[in-house]
Amino acid sequence: MPAELTFAAPRRAQPPRHLADLSPDDRRAAVTELGEKPFRAKQLAQHYFGHLESDTSAMTDLPEGSRERLGAELLPELLTPVRHVTCDEGMTRKTLWRAFDGVMFESVLMRYPDRATLCVSSQAGCGMNCPFCATGQNGLTRNLSTGEIVDQVVSVARDLERGEVSGGPGRISNIVFMGMGEPLANYRRVLDSIRRMTDPVPGGMGISQRGVTVSTVGLVPAIEKMIAERMQVRLAISLHAPDDELRDELVPVNNRWKVAEALDAAWRYADTTGRRVSIEYALIRDINDQAWRADLLGEMLAGHLAHVNLIPLNPTPGSKWTASRPEDEREFVRRLQSHGVPVTIRDTRGQEIDGACGQLAASERE
């Protein structure tokens, strides 16, 4: 990754090597180094990605004498669920995970009649310093490994398949990188994790790339790298202000890449992939919810392959930032629509379970 994309986390011990960290070729090499036949790698991957099984003692097609070693070397336990909290009659479930080194991060499963969406974390904490964000207030601890990102998905998918989540057995259809962290500041591991999620079984989990959304505050060089990947994932830009003066305050990375630069990169992504870009905009009372800002945003987006996702702010304890008044929210929507810009208001799920990412981890540390 170019030097300008380096957002350094403190140097820490690395998570143990996991099957999900490895490409298919690397998996074959790894099992060969352990004295096993190369095809054992495909068997392990079939179990983990296809059957959502991490316990090698249950993999009866592996030699009994090899199961424990293969498990220890290639399917170590990466994540321990500290607790699950639910709301919406169990259809929204947040999980607090503890990694091997004690760091904690979160994922959120949201079930709907026609889909199941999992919001995953890509970092423990975040270094972007957005002042209204619970995760940003805690700073960056470290990047998550590819395996730690993927294992969030596999673990929740296993619970869903086994009917351990309200609503009965099901499957994950959508993945959104909108949990803790800035995904594009952990670029290579995030892209590798997307491949593990979307490559066909046994290479990966077989989830459609079109069901994956990657959110970023606007790291322009990384967006350019994503364009070159020619993937079909959706790009979401966490904009939160249409003018540089306010966005410099709300999204400090704007001091490096301005609104126009971030949007220009987004339009190049849309032109290359044919995928509509999502513009994420957290409405904050008397800060960024003025009608003139809605007009400015509408003028910027009109005619582009874009959709605005308005997010009623979920306030964090002790914060001065709070959600917009209903009448201001309605006027903001009306102004955007008057410019021909599609707009929706995000479902405000999870507020009663510390829904904003970072709140649950913060409360556990207190």
Automatic annotation (TrEMBL):
EC number(s) per entry: 2.1.1.192
GO biological process: rRNA base methylation; tRNA methylation
GO cellular component, one term: cytoplasm
UniProt KW keywords: 4Fe-4S, Cytoplasm, Disulfide bond, Iron, Iron-sulfur, Metal-binding, Methyltransferase, rRNA processing, S-adenosyl-L-methionine, Transferase, tRNA processing
Cofactor note: Binds 1 [4Fe-4S] cluster. The cluster is coordinated with 3 cysteines and an exchangeable S-adenosyl-L-methionine.
Domain Radical SAM core: 112-352
UniProt binding sites for S-adenosyl-L-methionine: 181-182, 215, 238-240, 314
Main location: cytoplasm
Chain sites annotated for binding [4Fe-4S] cluster: 126, 130, 133
Reactions it catalyzes: adenosine(37) in tRNA + 2 reduced [2Fe-2S]-[ferredoxin] + 2 S-adenosyl-L-methionine = 2-methyladenosine(37) in tRNA + 5'-deoxyadenosine + L-methionine + 2 oxidized [2Fe-2S]-[ferredoxin] + S-adenosyl-L-homocysteine; adenosine(2503) in 23S rRNA + 2 reduced [2Fe-2S]-[ferredoxin] + 2 S-adenosyl-L-methionine = 2-methyladenosine(2503) in 23S rRNA + 5'-deoxyadenosine + L-methionine + 2 oxidized [2Fe-2S]-[ferredoxin] + S-adenosyl-L-homocysteine
SUPFAM superfamilies: Radical SAM enzymes
UniProt-listed InterPro entries: Aldolase_TIM, Elp3/MiaA/NifB-like_rSAM, Methyltransferase_A, RlmN_N, RNA_MTrfase_RlmN, rRNA_lsu_MTrfase_RlmN/Cfr, rSAM, rSAM_sf
Active-site residues per Swiss-Prot or TrEMBL entry: 106 (proton acceptor), 357 (s-methylcysteine intermediate)
Cofactors that this protein relies on: [4Fe-4S] cluster
Start and end residues of each stretch annotated as Disordered: 1-25
GO molecular function: 4 iron, 4 sulfur cluster binding; metal ion binding; rRNA (adenine(2503)-C2-)-methyltransferase activity; rRNA binding; tRNA (adenine(37)-C2)-methyltransferase activity; tRNA binding
Any coiled-coil regions, as ranges: none
Task of the protein: Specifically methylates position 2 of adenine 2503 in 23S rRNA and position 2 of adenine 37 in tRNAs.
Other known facts: Reaction proceeds by a ping-pong mechanism involving intermediate methylation of a conserved cysteine residue.
Protein's UniProt name: Probable dual-specificity RNA methyltransferase RlmN
Native organism: Haloactinospora alba
